[in-house]
Specification:
The protein has a domain of 81 residues. The chain has 15 helices and no strands. The chain has 267 residues and is mainly alpha-helical. The chain starts with 5 loop residues before the first helix and ends with a helix.
């Protein structure tokens, strides 16, 4: 990664810098790294994310943690949240749920929707802090008011399960709908489940088909198990289609690997 001089940083315009960030990842990472090293707190938070994701630079969890910590100590809300993630998952540091909660709380109080969501999740599940579902619901609602789709989904689960509110499947379904429309894969699945419960199979199918576009592999596995066990023929057929798609993808990967191997031995 080529070095960017302080003079170049000082002379770049806002529009030029935006274009750099939107360009080749390696060039963007070089500029963001230079800005981070020269004390620009937003750049420190972004560079931490680049290092975490391996965006334009070799992934490095230890370095990502260091840059998130730099920015978090200067009250950068997203860096506070990401430092909490590092402590929750053990990225670049020893995992420590109570310390993760500390940073999530700060991010939440700073007004960051993701901080509110992560702090509320810890409160709802008792992860690193004493379980307090009433307080959790309050933070989920605050994040949902900011348009945070995953928080809409969690509020829906409170109404479906009757946590600190009276159970109400209609209210739950409405929150799941908002989460689904906001792009949350769990919301899409939960909305489809409740649609199916009232017999709206066609609409439920449409939402279930969207889930794999953004869902994690673990969640897709759980959804496929649910589909396979469903009494609804269309859902079981959908699971079989997912299975065929996975097998086709695996076969394509195997073919590419074989071709690459042949190319290597011919060299």
């Amino acid at each position: 990664m080529s070095e960017v001089s302080l003079k170049a940083l000082a002379n770049v315009s806002r529009d030029e810098f935006a274009a750099i960030l939107a360009g080749p990842p390696e060039r963007a990472a070089a500029w963001v790294a230079a800005a981070a090293r020269n004390g620009i707190v937003d750049a420190q938070a972004v560079y931490g994310q680049y290092l975490l994701d391996g965006h334009g630079v070799e992934g490095n969890l230890d370095e990502a943690f260091v840059w998130f910590r730099h920015a978090a100590r200067r009250d950068h809300p997203m860096a506070m949240n990401m430092l909490g993630r590092c402590y929750e998952h053990g990225w670049g540091t020893a995992a420590c749920a109570p310390v993760a909660v500390y940073w999530y709380r700060l991010a939440a109080r700073a007004g960051l929707d993701w901080g509110m969501y992560n702090y509320a999740s810890a409160l709802a599940l008792g992860n690193g802090i004493e379980c307090d579902r009433e307080q959790a619901l309050g933070w989920f609602r605050r994040a949902a008011e900011l348009g945070h789709a995953k928080s809409w989904n969690f509020v829906g689960s409170f109404y479906e399960d009757g946590w600190v509110v009276d159970a109400n499947v209609d209210i739950a379904r409405d929150y799941y709908r908002r989460a689904a429309e906001g792009g949350d894969f769990r919301g899409q699945f939960n909305y489809a489940r409740l649609l199916a419960q009232r017999g709206d199979i066609d609409e439920a199918m449409q939402w279930l088909q969207r889930v794999p576009r953004t869902a994690t592999a673990a969640f897709i596995t759980k959804m496929r198990d649910w589909l396979a066990d469903s009494p609804v023929n269309a859902f079981r057929a959908l699971e079989q289609n997912f299975a065929a798609s996975v097998n086709a993808s695996a076969s394509a990967q195997e073919r590419r690997a074989a071709i690459n191997f042949i190319r290597e031995i011919r060299r």
